[in-house]
Q: What sequence folds into this?
C-alpha cells in the first residue's frame, strides 16, 4: 500500500476509532474535564464534528479553486458560541461520520494530479490537498488519544469519589 492509500485508509477509519472510544460514555462522564484547559468528551466530540465541517469546505476549495484562501477558525470561540456544552455527542459523532464518509468518497476517486493542489491557510501558509488530509487524519487520531485519556482519568476520579464515601452499610 502506498503512502496516499495508507493515509486515506486511516482517514476513513477515523470515525470508527472515535466511536469505539466513546461507546458507553454517558451522564456526568460526558461533561467531566480533567482540569482547566482540558476538554470533556462532549466538547471533543463537538469539536471533531465542527472541524470536519470546516475541513469539508477546505478540501473542496483546494480541489476546485486555484490557490484559495483557507480561513482559520478559533476553536475556543466555536466551543462557546455554538454551545458545545449543550450539544449531543451522539449527533456530533453522526455528523463527523457522515462528513468523513462523504469526504473519503470524494478523495478516493481523485486523480493523482489533484493531490499537490494548494490552498493558502490564513495562519500557516500554503497547504497541499495531501497535507490537509494528513492534518484531518492526525487530528482525529490525536482526539482519539485525548478521549481515551479523559475517559481513563474520569474512571480514576469516580473510583476515588467512591472510596472517599466509604462502604455503604
A:
Amino acid at each position: 500500500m502506498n503512502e496516499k492509500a495508507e493515509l486515506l485508509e486511516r482517514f476513513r477509519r477515523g470515525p470508527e476509532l472515535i466511536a469505539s472510544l466513546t461507546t458507553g460514555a454517558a451522564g456526568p462522564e460526558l461533561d467531566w474535564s480533567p482540569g482547566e484547559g482540558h476538554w470533556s468528551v462532549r466538547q471533543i466530540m463537538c469539536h471533531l464534528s465542527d472541524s470536519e465541517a470546516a475541513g469539508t469546505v477546505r478540501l473542496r476549495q483546494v480541489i476546485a479553486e486555484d490557490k484559495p484562501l483557507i480561513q482559520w477558525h478559533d476553536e475556543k470561540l466555536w466551543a462557546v458560541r455554538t454551545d458545545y456544552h449543550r450539544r449531543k455527542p451522539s449527533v456530533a459523532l453522526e455528523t463527523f461520520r457522515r462528513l468523513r464518509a462523504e469526504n473519503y468518497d470524494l478523495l478516493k476517486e481523485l486523480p493523482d494530479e489533484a493531490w499537490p493542489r494548494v490552498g493558502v491557510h490564513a495562519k500557516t501558509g500554503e497547504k497541499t490537498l495531501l497535507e490537509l488530509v494528513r492534518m484531518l487524519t492526525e487530528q482525529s487520531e490525536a482526539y482519539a488519544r485525548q478521549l481515551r485519556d479523559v475517559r481513563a482519568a474520569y474512571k480514576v476520579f469516580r473510583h476515588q469519589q467512591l472510596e472517599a464515601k466509604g462502604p455503604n452499610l
